[in-house]
Amino acid sequence: MIGDSAIRKGIVDRAMAILLRPKLEWPVIAAEPDTVGGLYTRYILIMAAIPAVMGFLKMSVIGVGLPFMGTMRIGIGAGLTGFIVNYVLSLVGVFLVALLIDALAPSFGGQKDRVQALKTVAYAYTAAWVASIGQIIPGLWILITLAALVYGIYLLYVGLPVTMKCPPDKAAGYTAVTIIVAIIVGWVVGFFVGAATGMGGAMMGAAGRSAYSGSDATFDANSPLGKLAAIGKQAAIAGKQMDAAQKSGDADAQAAAAKAMVAATLGGGLKVEALAPDRLKSFVPDSIGGMKRTDLSVERNGALGMQVSKAHASYADDAGHSVKLDVTDLGGAKGLMSLAGFAGVEQDTETDHGYDKTYRSGDRWIHEKWDSGGRDGEYGVIVGGRFSVNAQGTAASLDDLKSAVASVNLAGLEALKDDGVQKIQ
């Protein structure tokens, strides 16, 4: 019988191998005799527990940051419930994605094999599972998650031709469809976890019409699915460029290829230079109503070619009211922001002491949250599919928070939505 330490060592070795040398490891994985049960017991059950555990720590111990809502902690009981639901549904989700990969194989010139399909999902998910540790690292987990998303797409693109025997020239379409399936399954998991913990979840909206044409996997270009497919194909092209760069041994070329993959996936094929801190600072007012600004900070950070700028200010008055105002240039995530409608994030929840709703008004996304008991809330707007302006704090009414956001020159920000944007050739 293999001891626990040997199993752990085997998992660590396999995870490191698929992350560090995927092109060499996928053929090894494909050739290994295995079963669905074996894959679960020796790898999936353990690796899938990482995000579930980290999610519990984040939600119940550290606190989870929600778009426009600030930081929230939930009770240990609800957190444990969320952990169990998240873990179980994740295990089910892996199998569902594997089933669909297996079913789609003939459409892309591949060979149906359920075990190989499960291998594909399990090892392509490795990047996301390992990166979930970043949830407990304040300020960095978003970038870590995005990097894992990009690398997971690359792992999938490299692995499908090996495990499912599809022709390399059809791997891009196969990858795109698989990404869409994984996203949908992920939403379902997130919805039920949110319901179980009482934190709610993004409601799944209409996916839009799509036109599937056999192995080419083409979609209506104007539909959300079409846009997602286009991003997947761009990532696949960037993956080919990364392969060429690795073969060349040119470190600069490899770095450029990695940046191109990030831009293709997150920027929708666009390279975006976020506004310089001084430019973003100019949008922060000195005062809001009767509240004076008490502090101000601005910064611009970047990783793998993706930049994000943020200006943060605090305001207070003698009546005990205080507001925190954030103006953020989402920069390199501009492409994904354009797909916000596909996520179906509109929601409207009411309680005895307040409400929480997210909705679209014209081209802008708006979030409102108010607690009449504590006299605190949040009001946020996304303009130009790129800039987030958010006010939260204690106020006489939500109108004060709306006024705080309105004090920012939103039209001026929106006019800069294409500033620093370049199309990747």
Overview of this structure, please?
- α1 (4-20) crosses α2 and α5 (76-104) packs antiparallel against α9.
- The chain is built from 15 helices and 13 strands.
- It starts with a helix and ends with a strand.
- The protein has two domains: 4-266, no CATH class; 277-423.
- It has helices spanning 4-20, 22-31, 36-47, 49-62, 76-104, 114-124, 126-131, 141-163, 171-197, 224-248, 251-266, 277-281, 334-337, 398-406, 410-414, and strands at residues 64-66, 70-72, 270-272, 287-288, 291-303, 306-316, 322-329, 347-351, 354-361, 364-371, 376-383, 387-394, 421-423.
- The chain has 425 residues and is an alpha+beta fold.
- β6 (306-316) and β7 (322-329) form a beta hairpin.
- It has a nine-stranded antiparallel beta sheet. Strands 1-2 form a two-stranded antiparallel ribbon. Strands 3-13 form a two-stranded antiparallel sheet.
In a few lines, what is going on in this structure?
This protein is an alpha+beta fold and 425 residues long.
Topology:
Elements: H1 4-20, H2 22-31, H3 36-47, H4 49-62, E1 64-66, E2 70-72, H5 76-104, H6 114-124, H7 126-131, H8 141-163, H9 171-197, H10 224-248, H11 251-266, E3 270-272, H12 277-281, E4 287-288, E5 291-303, E6 306-316, E7 322-329, H13 334-337, E8 347-351, E9 354-361, E10 364-371, E11 376-383, E12 387-394, H14 398-406, H15 410-414, E13 421-423
